[in-house]
Amino acid sequence: MKSLLLSRFLLLLPWGLIVILLLDTDSSRAPPVIPARPPQQQQQATPRRSALPPIYAITPTYSRPVQKAELTRLANTFRQVARLHWILVEDAARRSELVSRFVARAGLPCTHLHVPTPRRYKRPGLPRATEQRNAGLAWLRQRHQHLPPPQPGVLFFADDDNTYSLELFEEMRTTRTVSVWPVGLVGGRRYERPIVENGKVVGWYTGWRGDRPFAIDMAGFAVSLQVILSNPKAVFKRRGSQPGMQESDFLKQITTVEELEPKANNCTKVLVWHTRTEKVNLGNEPKYHLDTVKIEV
Ligand code: UGA
Ligand code: MN
């Protein structure tokens, strides 16, 4: 038995040595040389990035258990988009500590505003975030109104609970007036989309109120900064605005259906989803603070 094992061992030994030798020569090989970028290419990279029109994302947000999680998800996306300026507007009488801390560490250009929704408008069935979006618009107009045209830039309304693909930003970046695209998981359907014929929007595929002049969700369009500046009175209205009509009422003030620029391969690709976060179960949360530490969530 012993001699059998020994003969097996002696038989395998040379092979083992060969394998060890091969592995060793492999790791001792010089690391692959990564050619340094030619200096002229390095110089070009910065100006090219700054030549991109900035994207301004207006995000209304309000205090609730999932707020920081939503903002974290959004920042993780926005941080990867070149020249994105985030306008975060808190639905609150003052800036909260949570959002202020968050903004300071977000790692992207942020403007932190706040305006409370009047109590009478905080009711189910009424449009949300009207005052906050208008505050974002006012900030943008004030910042640019004294600068000479043309003012490059694109504005879009980014609710804090939606899901945005990076490709969406590439699409909206080239907006000349108002651009549109499909939105997933909205209107009681898997998606809604503008119907496009010969490069023009001719109607709307939607499960909800197809009679709206612009049957589109807030996440489904972007507006050039120039259009925002040349229509200084265009705002979201409370008076006379029915639920779900905010987008249409706003777009009516600045454009026509014929003018819309279809994006996302003639509106055939979903690049943004109207996701909604489940209300968290805090049923086991103690009435009084029991833990030894205080933790921001
Ligand atoms: C739909 C549309 O997609 C929204 O664009 C529209 O504002 C909203 O309806 C409406 O009812 O007006 P939905 O998912 O039902 O969206 O609304 P939320 O996501 O709850 O709110 C939209 C945005 O407003 C979010 O960014 C949210 O943080 C903010 N919000 C909501 C406030 O700032 N204050 C509130 O009291 C509620
Ligand atoms: Mn939402």
- How many DSSP H or I helices? 9
Report how far the terminal alpha carbons are from each other: 66 Å
Q: What number is the mean pLDDT?
A: 89
- Uncertain segments are 17-32, 38-44
* Strand adjacency order, main sheet: 3-2-1-4-10-6-11
Radius of gyration: 27 Å
Could you spell the SSE succession in H and E letters?
A: HHEHEHEHEEHEEEEEHHEHE
The portion of residues forming beta strands comes to 15-25%
Distinct small molecules bound, one entry per kind: uridine-5'-diphosphate-glucuronic acid, manganese (II) ion
Structure description:
- This protein is an alpha/beta fold and about 300 residues long.
- It has 9 helices and 12 strands.
- The protein has helices at about 1-30, 40-50, 65-80, 95-105, 130-145, 165-170, 225-230, 245-255, 265, and strands spanning about 55-60, 85-90, 110-115, 155, 165, 180, 185, 190-195, 200-205, 220-225, 260, 270-275.
- It has a 7-stranded mixed sheet, sandwiched between helices. A 3-stranded antiparallel sheet has the order 7-8-9, with no helix packed on it.
- Bound molecules: uridine-5'-diphosphate-glucuronic acid and manganese (II) ion (MN).
